[in-house]
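Progress report, Aim 2. The chain analyzed during this reporting quarter is listed below.
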Amino acid sequence: MKFLLEVTMDEGALAEDPTAELQRILRYWGGNLKHYDLKPGDGSAIYDSAYREVGRWSVEGQAG
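Predicted structure tokens for the chain:
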């Protein structure tokens, strides 16, 4: 299995301060993962601090 995190960094809050914005995204989603089984097919959109969709995380592949 693979855990994939894809974030577009060329506009909005990520373009203005990429380090701070990525830190915020990783903290938020790191804490939010407890709400998921983390099995293939799980995933969610990722939003920046202005609540614009900037990417997605997903779990892909076969379990076991």
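The mean pLDDT is 92. The chain has one domain: 2-60. These observations will guide the mutagenesis work planned for the next reporting period.
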